[in-house]
Design a protein that fits this description.
Layout lengths: L1 H12 L4 E4 H7 L8 E6 L3 H15 L13 E4 L5 E5 L7 H6 L2 E5 L2 E5 L2 H11 L2 H9 L7 H4 L10
Parallel strand pairs: 2-4
Antiparallel strand pairs: 1-2, 3-4, 5-6
Helix pairs in contact: 1-3, 5-6
């Protein structure tokens, strides 16, 4: 977790708009499970993309062209079990809603925003992967059946 905590510190220093999603967000709400990466949802706006690129360069000399950080982008850095996934969208949740409803907490000793439980559940319901069904159970929710996934509107996608 130290590398991840260092990354969070650098993102905070550069004022990057990001939200912790995935297994670490699930863990934030009390269901801990093994993971081989950290998933960060990042604002795809150009001004934030520049901050992300500067932060990654500061973090580990990682060169990323800010122009490559746009809607529906995923950047994978490192290798499992210490991989970093930066994504500009997640299934079932609009960035604006995720940002507006984020839960401010800490990651190690660093202040960090986590995906709200409402949006995390919407995301897990919308993906339909087996591990997401287990996450839903761990979060105290009933997993959805595959045909129900298509009907889900997600976490207020209208905003």
């Amino acid at each position: 977790m130290d590398d991840y905590e260092d990354l969070i510190a650098v993102f905070n220093k550069h004022h990057v708009e990001y939200i912790i999603v995935g297994a670490y967000a699930v863990g934030h709400y009390g269901y801990l499970r093994a993971t081989e990466d950290i998933d960060l949802l990042i604002n795809p706006k150009p001004e934030n993309a520049k901050k992300v690129a500067a932060a990654l360069k500061d973090f580990g000399g990682i060169e990323v062209d800010p122009a490559e950080i746009k809607e529906k982008t995923m950047i994978e850095i490192g290798v499992k079990p210490n991989a970093l996934h930066l994504m500009t969208n997640i299934t079932g949740v609009a960035w604006e809603k995720a940002w507006a409803s984020r839960a401010q907490s800490v990651f190690g000793d660093q202040p960090a925003p986590f995906l709200s439980k409402e949006c995390l559940i919407a995301n897990k319901r919308a993906t339909g992967r087996g591990k997401d069904g287990l996450d839903l159970i761990g979060l105290g929710e009933t997993p959805v059946k595959t045909k129900e996934i298509k009907k889900s509107r997600g976490c207020d996608r209208s905003t």
